[in-house]
Fold this sequence. Notes:
By secondary structure, the protein is mainly α. It has helices at about 1-15, 20-45, 50-80.
Amino acid sequence: MTSTVTQATIAALTSTSYDTLSTTIGIMVVIVLIVLLLQKELARVLVGSRAQPWIHAFDLALVPLLVAFLVIVTGRLAELLR
């Protein structure tokens, strides 16, 4: 099953253009980033001091998404400035 998933993933990635792929991934990253930021703020407001472990977990999840967001924005800006 692992080789089937890998082959399906490779086929999906190679069949689409860079522009389509980066737009789709960019939209997903932004949506997940917004949802996690909202959940973090809601946990901070609603739960109080019991929310510290949750807030720390959200911080850990947000770091890779912020890096991905910055890479996508930088790539898009570089493409526009060409």
